[in-house]
Amino acid sequence: MRAATQRTLQTAVSDRLTIGEILIRRSGENGFVLTHRDDERENQLEIFRNPESASSIARNDDRGRYRPLKTAPNLRHGWRLEVATGEELQCALDYFYPGRLEVFASWKQGELRTTSFRETLDRQTGMYRIAAQISNGEADEVIGNFCRSDGGCLRTILWKRDQSGMMPSSKLPPEKFDPTHAQEANAIPLICQEACNLLVAECRKAVKGENASGL
Ligand code: SF4
Fold it and tell me: Is the pTM of this model over 0.90?
């Protein structure tokens, strides 16, 4: 899968490309420069040249708070990462957005399997088993709030609510479920193929009547 992902990435990066909050530009014959999208014209950036530096860059937000969800729209600013090859680019992006390139490559090849929200909840064990008791109305609210792109998560949702094929939430705009929406702007979409552990935890809180938390 790694070779397929590499091919997909190389094809996608023409001159400039975005993925999530990251802008990727070609540099020289084989290299790439990555910055926060907001920092495209910023000159006073801290320079990194090791792709593994992406791990520390992605760890905390601008205020130094830990980022539990790497696809939340709170990537810190002020850095420039220069990588020498496509392999290093893939490595860096795997730190910024773990697993997202492989999911994108699977989706491009028509091989991506998704898991419905109810299936994900039904397989929970231990303290998270109770999350499956969430009603569809509550789930509509929780997903609409937790997964929203402005302040929640940048991923495009491809999972459905249940076997009926219902959309997960009526509170989210149609583009939240459309990976081609991001591609029109020369971007690799961050795809969500199943509800994450953080969303499951929010559902548990809703069932238990605890206040839902933001990220
Ligand atoms: S379920 Fe998917 S879209 Fe929602 S917050 Fe988790 S990763 Fe993001």
Answer: yes
